[in-house]
């Protein structure tokens, strides 16, 4: 026994080399767009012919994949690879991709799919693959009427975007804006709506009356906007699904800058009288009007926070137009913008963390963002004239309009829609049929 | 009994009183507070001009005035300078300068003589002392001692050998440290730099959440990854933690894209298991 204990004691004395686990902190990465391959969706011959007859599209599978590719590219977060480099055919890739082939062209993710014509309907299956891990990340199928094929492309884009970035997408959305035509002094302004990528453009008004500041309801396909009646601006409500339109109350003064509350049950707007302007809300169910601010200054451009507890607005109560926030009942007013220049059109991000604004400083217009306490101001883009930022539903991209300077003869004026993401690097022109201003981004249609 | 107690206590009290009054450290002395002296803070730059104290300034001015007077008594300062520069610059044409300088500038005889003697001293090799010899490069070559150089080279070799030995000692010590502490800074930097390039951070993630993904790697000797393990794997499938899954997947992609990892060529036992902590907060906060 003693001998055994002695041996055990000796064993404990033997030095054993122990290595602590080495830890390495990785705090940086690259912000380059993720390289991914969007394989054309495979389609059998019968389905191909059917869709060709119905939609007049030669290969609907390729068309849908192009929509997905364009959406992901415009986000600035993905780099869809050139299809000519693909080594595997779409039909085989959809069943079981050869990951080595996709790895070879440096794709980190792969989208494959299949389109079928079943019972007069379009059925689309798609799969997202992690090329490096050689595994499937997501597989979904949609069935819809064939004419809805573009939306299928947008929905696939949203699903891929969400799976790879961790936040919801913004592709299955629409944009309402003011379409402008004619010379600068006699502009014909109509309400128009289109998909976020510029497709399916439709004019909603005839252009007999001037329309301004259309804003989407965050919860439904309802729009509020301003239109002139007998030379007085009035706030209107328009249901896009039914086409019905109504005036929101009849005020004895001017009402402007209307915007919905986050739950879509109220409208918040400015009402001007006797040289001062205050902020009011109106309950859309009982049409009760409530005065929120009561100050001798000009308070305008109100915008609710996503939780509905706060309101951002601009006011000249400090002498210059600056951004303020207050509780939704009008109490606890705080100024949050303190930089040089004039601040206007504050819009609260759907994520709730930022407020977008227009800034005028030394004759130039900026679109920027700041945190809700006014700190961390970042100017994203600068130009001769630009304003009216509107957030994408995921709070990553802003759409706004930009006007160009006319020459000495008064020629060369144009107004176009532009988008920019929060990095400030991904600035893009949004194609519209006519000149355009005052854009407003809808919520996701597929919600 | 009571009487004696009272007497005793009175005497004790008296004794304490006397002692207290007579002890020197108990006596309260008036505090001797030093007067407040203002201190002027001056930022130290390459050239810091500190103003003189008024008295010192006056004294300096007086001294300067005296010096000025002395200079003016001797000779006009500008003219002296001109002759000096000419004599120093010219090496070969000594005679010409000596003859020209007095002609060009009419100086008092004494000063001219002084200058002439200076120039003679500098340009006459026979009268050169040790210090002057070192100034001239041409003369240096003439005084080269080859034996000395050989000695110096030998000495230099010995010195470098000593330094190498010292360095060897240090690296051995470092090795001992590595066994216990991990990779060296350069090894860690190389690995980090490699993974930075491979990791595409998902930009849509919320920056105010806990965004730390810890991945344990089992590595082959060539740096290729044999096995990966997400240490907080349970969090991957928790509801409301979708962003964590996205981040973890992006980290795994980075590891796979980067392999073989840039690991040290030696000491496999030391780094065959490695933990990478992917933290995106810094990047996402911007």
Describe this structure in words.
The complex is a heterodimer of chains A (447) and B (286). Chain A folds into two domains: 34-165, TolB, N-terminal domain (Rossmann fold); 174-441, 6 Propeller (Neuraminidase), CATH 2.120.10. Helices cover 15% and strands 44% of the residues of chain A. Chain A has six helices and 31 strands. Chain B is mainly alpha-helical. Chain B folds into three domains: 73-137, no CATH class; 145-181; 183-285, Fusion Protein Consisting Of Minor Coat Protein, Glycine Rich Linker, Tola, And A His Tag, Chain: A, Domain 2 (2-Layer Sandwich), CATH 3.30.1150. Chain B contains twelve helices and three strands, in the order αααααααααββααβα. Chain B has helices at 2-22, 54-74, 77-89, 94-104, 109-123, 130-135, 137-142, 146-181, 185-198, 242-258, 268-271, 281-285; strands spanning 212-219, 225-230, 273-279. A three-stranded antiparallel sheet of chain B has the order 2-1-3. In chain B, α3 (77-89) runs parallel beside α5 (109-123). Chain B is elongated and about 100 Å long. Residues 30-53, 70-144 and 160-181 of chain B have low confidence and may be disordered.
CATH fold call of the largest domain in chain B: Fusion Protein Consisting Of Minor Coat Protein, Glycine Rich Linker, Tola, And A His Tag, Chain: A, Domain 2
Which CATH C-level class of the largest domain in chain A is it?
Mainly Beta
Query: Helical stretch count of chain B?
Result: 12
Number of domains of chain B: 3
Second-tier CATH architecture of the largest domain in chain A? 6 Propeller
Largest interface, with Cβ-Cβ < 8 Å? A-B, 34 and 48 residues
CATH T-level topology of the largest domain in chain A: Neuraminidase
Write down how many β-strands of chain B occur, each being a DSSP E stretch of 2 or more residues: 3
Oligomer: heterodimer
Which structural category fits the helices and strands of chain A? mainly beta
Round the Cα radius of gyration of chain B to an integer and report it. Answer: 42 Å
Strand content of chain A: 35-45%
Q: How helix-rich are the residues of chain B, as a percent range?
A: 55-70%
Major β-sheet profile of chain A: 6 strands, mixed
Question: Which stretches of chain B are poorly predicted, pLDDT < 50 over at least 5 residues?
Answer: 30-53, 70-144, 160-181
Q: C-alpha Rg of chain A, in Å?
A: 27 Å
CATH superfamily of the largest domain in chain A: TolB, C-terminal domain
The count of helical stretches of chain A stands at: 6
Taking the sheet with the most strands of chain B, its summary is: 3 strands, antiparallel
What's the average pLDDT of chain A? 89
Give the class of chain B from helix and strand content and strand pairing. Answer: mainly alpha
């Amino acid at each position: 026994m003693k001998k055994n204990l002695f041996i055990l004691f000796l064993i404990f004395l033997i030095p054993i080399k122990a290595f602590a686990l080495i830890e390495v902190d990785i705090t940086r990465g690259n912000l380059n767009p993720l390289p991914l391959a969007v394989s054309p969706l495979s389609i059998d011959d019968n389905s191909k012919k059917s869709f060709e007859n119905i939609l007049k599209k030669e290969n609907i599978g390729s068309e849908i994949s192009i929509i997905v590719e364009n959406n992901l590219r415009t986000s600035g977060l993905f780099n869809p690879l050139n299809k000519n480099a693909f080594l595997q055919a779409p039909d085989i890739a959809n069943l079981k991709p050869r990951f080595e082939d996709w790895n070879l062209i440096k794709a980190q993710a792969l989208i494959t799919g299949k389109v079928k014509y079943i019972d007069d309907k379009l059925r689309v299956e798609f799969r997202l693959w992690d090329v490096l891990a050689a595994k499937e990340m997501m597989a979904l199928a949609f069935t819809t009427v064939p004419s809805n094929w573009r939306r299928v492309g947008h929905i696939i884009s949203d699903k891929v975007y969400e799976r790879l970035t961790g936040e919801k997408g913004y592709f299955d959305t629409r944009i309402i804006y003011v379409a402008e035509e004619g010379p600068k002094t006699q502009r014909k302004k109509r309400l128009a709506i289109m998909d976020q990528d510029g497709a399916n453009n439709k004019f909603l008004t005839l252009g007999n009356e001037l329309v301004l500041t259309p804003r989407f309801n965050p919860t439904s396909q309802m729009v509020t906007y301003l239109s002139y009646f007998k030379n007085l601006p009035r706030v209107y409500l328009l249901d896009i699904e039914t086409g019905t339109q109504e005036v929101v109350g009849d005020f004895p003064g001017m009402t402007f800058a209307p915007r919905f509350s986050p739950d879509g049950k109220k409208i918040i707007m400015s009402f001007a009288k006797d040289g001062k302007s205050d902020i009011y809300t109106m309950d859309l169910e009982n049409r009760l009007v409530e005065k929120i601010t009561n100050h001798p200054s000009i308070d305008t451009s109100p915008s609710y926070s996503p939780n509905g507890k706060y309101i951002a607005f601009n006011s000249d109560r400090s002498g210059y137009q600056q951004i303020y926030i207050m509780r939704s009942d009008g109490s606890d007013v705080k100024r949050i913008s303190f930089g040089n220049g004039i601040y206007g059109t504050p819009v609260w991000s759907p994520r709730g963390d930022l407020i977008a604004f227009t800034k005028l400083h030394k004759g130039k217009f900026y679109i920027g963002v700041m945190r809700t306490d006014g700190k961390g101001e970042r100017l994203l883009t600068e130009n001769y004239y630009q304003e009216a930022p509107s957030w994408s539903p995921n709070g990553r991209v802003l759409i706004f309009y930009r006007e160009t300077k006319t020459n000495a003869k008064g020629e060369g004026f144009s107004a176009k829609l532009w988008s920019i993401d929060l990095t400030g690097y991904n600035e893009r022109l949004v194609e519209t049929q006519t000149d355009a201003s005052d854009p407003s981004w809808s919520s996701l249609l597929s919600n | 009994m009571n009487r004696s107690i009272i007497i005793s206590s009175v005497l004790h009290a008296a004794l304490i009183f006397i002692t207290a009054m007579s002890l020197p450290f108990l006596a309260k002395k008036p505090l001797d507070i030093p007067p407040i002296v203002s201190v002027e803070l001056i930022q130290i730059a390459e050239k810091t001009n500190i103003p003189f104290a008024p008295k010192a300034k006056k004294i300096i001015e007086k001294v300067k005035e005296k010096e000025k007077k002395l200079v003016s008594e001797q000779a006009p300062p500008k003219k002296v300078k001109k002759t000096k520069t000419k004599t120093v610059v010219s090496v070969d044409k000594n005679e010409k300068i000596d003859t020209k300088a007095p002609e060009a500038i009419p100086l008092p005889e004494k000063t001219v003589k002084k200058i002439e003697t200076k120039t003679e001293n500098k340009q006459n090799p026979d009268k050169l002392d040790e210090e002057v010899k070192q100034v001239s490069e041409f003369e240096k070559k003439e005084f080269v001692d080859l034996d000395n150089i050989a000695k110096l080279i030998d000495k230099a070799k010995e010195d470098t050998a000593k330094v190498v030995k010292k360095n060897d000692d240090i690296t051995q010590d470092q090795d001992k440290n590595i066994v216990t502490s991990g990779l060296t800074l350069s090894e860690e930097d190389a690995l980090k730099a490699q993974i930075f390039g491979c990791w595409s951070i998902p930009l849509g993630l919320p920056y105010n959440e806990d965004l730390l993904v810890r991945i344990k790697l089992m590595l082959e000797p060539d740096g290729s990854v044999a096995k990966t393990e997400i240490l907080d794997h349970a969090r991957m499938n928790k509801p409301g933690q979708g962003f964590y899954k996205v981040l973890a997947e992006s980290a795994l992609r980075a590891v796979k894209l980067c392999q073989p990892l840039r690991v040290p060529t030696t000491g496999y036992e030391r780094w065959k298991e490695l933990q990478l902590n992917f933290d995106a907060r810094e990047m996402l906060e911007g």
